[in-house]
Specification:
Order of helices and strands: HHHHHEEHHH
Largest sheet: 2 strands, antiparallel
Oligomer: single chain
Shape: rod-shaped
Number of helices: 8
Helix content: 55-70%
Radius of gyration: 34 Å
Number of strands: 2
Length: 188
Amino acid sequence: MESLVIPVLILLLVGAGVLVVARAVGRRTAGNRASGSTPPGDPVELARAAAAKLTEDQHRRLYALIAQGQAMAAIKLYYEASGEGLRASRDAVGALAANPQPFHSAAPEEPENDDDDAPERFPYRYRAIASKGDVTREVSSNMLNDEIYGRIRTLARSGDTEAAAMALTRHSDISMKQAREFIALLDD
């Protein structure tokens, strides 16, 4: 019986050691969850959150490094850009690599305005020229571009010359009479 006492004592000590280690790991994991230092469980959400912390240039450089297979350089770039810890940076770069995210600017984008009522001024001057026979008309404006002029031409060719002339006057500094003369050259 004496020969079994020592192995049983060793077994009890090993069991107690495993129990102490398991409790310590459990407390550490619970503390990390409470402080928010562990990454979210969903890798897509982690990738979205990580991409939101990057500027456009950092985002582009990070994905270039990932594409080149330079994981350590990508982690270093994210670490420096985000200010997060090394482990969090590793997890974020892994999530970004597995779930590519497009760049979204921090400023909310204005909704695209398809309404012709409020013309936008462009940094360049647009010239539209229409001619029929020996008659030529030109409209030059910084409120016109290819898209707007295309809509005006479509209106004119579909027979809605008044709407085309009104749109042209809204996007240029010409009178309604001049706009009608210009549109008359387009409606063929």
